[in-house]
Design goal:
The structure is a homodimer of 326-residue chains. Chain A has helices spanning 94-100, 134-140, 167-171, 182-196, 208-217, 261-279, 308-321; strands spanning 6-23, 29-32, 39-42, 46-60, 71-74, 105-109, 146-148, 153-155, 199-204, 222-228, 249-253, 284-288. Helix content of chain A is 24%, strand content 24%. The mean pLDDT of chain A is 95. The N and C termini of chain A lie close together (10 Å). Chain A is of the alpha/beta class. Chain A contains seven helices and twelve strands. In chain A, the strands form three sheets. In chain A, strands 1-4-6-5-9-10-11-12 form an eight-stranded mixed β-sheet, sandwiched between helices. A two-stranded antiparallel ribbon of chain A has the order 2-3. The interface between A and B is large, with 79 and 74 residues. Strand 1 of chain A pairs antiparallel with strand 1 (6-23) of chain B.
């Protein structure tokens, strides 16, 4: 499956979804674009393209392709498509792994993140952005139980797979997020799926809300969903799960979830969704890594941990059993 | 030079440069991050990684590489590395052209743009971001002489190479910019050059300020600079141009510059810089496209225009004459 190179027919990108927003009634501003340039009057009133998302893709040269459908990789909250690229420690990550395994791959930057761009607030986006601190990332992503600035504390879990000396490098990947953009983000993902699928979705964390919802709407276009510690679920008491019956679902869980009350809370609605999927005769497989003897994987880091290839191989083998890669 | 595929040994990315910023004294907020997740108290006080930039790269498999140094492609203002990717009309652009021509390619998202991410303002970035309206882009980038919202006017230059029906699609690529970030942006580019060069720089528009300054500091690391309508110059009265003597410079100018007073103004300091480079015995070649019989290319769009391959080939031929590609 490895090999020293891949044949590529096209690397490219596109923006999908979005709309035109028009601003009026805002004051002009006099701005110096460089310290030495004259003042320019800037008028913010006018038209903007907003709420689009960005998709980057790598299409394999035919002899290198072994999967019937491309992967659509959807990142988590406060992050962008960079999640799947080179690891903070410089090692090769899931982008190259799945390309070498023969999948065409699409990588999303969800609306508001990374190359998707973002729009003025509060005029277009209706709330303020949220920036993730290092403390929140360290503790929420289960690198370790405690992080403090002053006095400095970086307690890591013993045996963790994430290279903690690369934590600051990882934090450079973080992007701001809004919590009021779920509807247009889902709309942009729907536009993406209509444009590029049928496909297999690999989704991480907060991206799962969009993945499960888009699958409910276009069940014929989604051939499987691999949830890498998904953190947003469908609520079977509120929405009809029936369309998902035909879509094989995989859930991959890292270490230290049971020991972390907030993660038990996050996981609970996913567990409920899994039981409904099983009850309706659908596929909902779970890889609980510590129960499989694979220890030390944290929430965000399965694709960045030392053993990222091991986890990717488990996923690829699961796809292979379902005929989704040769 | 064409061919139906390329051999790729690695697609990857890295963040370079930046620093840790610490915020204190800000109020906390209670936030629900996904519809099914519990309310979380968010404390914005703490540590952040800021001012880094993003570099994406494609390294060719050895038999496909024909250039001794990689290209470093630096985008212009209000844009990101997407500039070089698939065109708004869906056609292949300079990323694929130069890969097929045998260059390894690095694509920057400058600090504050795209996947480089951005930081809170006014606490870390000291000013507000600026968003470019469609009117400004249409007129400044010389798609046409006039754009208005109400009543709607989209006057395009006759014979223009940019597909005007894809203008809205192009505008989805735009990202906000700050006017107070030049120093850390240059610092991040310096970190990039130290990490990945020797290299050849291909730079567009506002990126040129950083390209010429970084070359002045590391002249042994920059083997040539291709300025695609550069809009920021070194001022020979204020800085020493001597280090640039050993670096061949190419300047590519599109159509309708002479007819546009603002562009004559923007070009003037570049012309001065060119004359100093020539006077000191350096190389400063100019491709004035309309004077070469190539009409209709606008400022931003040489890599997005219908004839983008034609312009890329001129540049590649110039690099070939200088021994920078076989």
């Amino acid at each position: 499956m490895a090999g020293d190179h891949i044949g590529v027919s096209e690397i490219g990108s596109m923006h999908v979804g979005g709309r035109t927003a028009t601003l009026t009634g805002l004051p002009t501003k006099d701005i110096k674009f460089t310290p030495t340039s004259p003042v320019t009057r800037v008028d913010p009133n006018g038209e903007y393209e907003v709420e689009q998302m960005y998709l980057q893709y790598v299409k394999l040269y035919e002899p290198f392709r072994r999967a019937p459908y491309p992967l659509l990789m959807m990142h988590g909250g406060g992050l962008a498509g960079v999640t799947w690229e080179t690891k903070p420690d410089g090692g090769s990550s899931w982008q190259m792994f799945f390309l070498k395994a023969g999948h065409d791959v699409y990588f999303a930057d969800a609306m508001e993140r990374g190359r998707a761009s973002w729009a003025r607030y509060p005029e277009i986006f209706t709330s303020e952005p949220i920036f993730r601190t290092k403390k929140e990332a360290w503790e929420l992503f289960r690198i370790g139980p405690k992080y403090d600035v002053s006095p400095p504390v970086r307690d890591a879990y013993p045996g963790g797979q994430f290279p903690v000396d690369k934590f600051d490098q990882f934090m450079k990947q973080g992007v701001p997020r809004w919590v009021t953009n779920d509807a247009p983000t889902l709309a942009a993902y729907e536009a993406a799926v209509q444009k590029i699928c049928p496909c297999v979705i690999v989704v991480h964390s907060q991206g799962s809300t969009f993945a499960y919802n888009v699958a409910r709407k276009f069940p014929d276009k989604i051939k499987a969903i691999v949830g890498v510690e998904p953190s947003g679920a469908l609520d079977p008491d509120k929405v009809d799960m029936a369309p998902l019956k035909v879509i094989p679902l995989l859930f991959v869980w890292g270490d230290k979830i049971r020991e972390t009350p907030r993660w038990v809370q996050i996981q609970a609605p996913l567990k409920k969704m899994i039981s409904v999927q099983l009850k309706q005769g659908g596929v909902a497989d779970e890889f609980d890594l510590p129960q499989m003897g694979i220890n030390g994987n944290s929430h965000m880091m399965m694709m960045m941990d030392r053993n990222s290839d091991q986890i990717a191989k488990l996923i690829n083998d699961w796809l292979q059993k379902r005929g989704l890669v040769k």
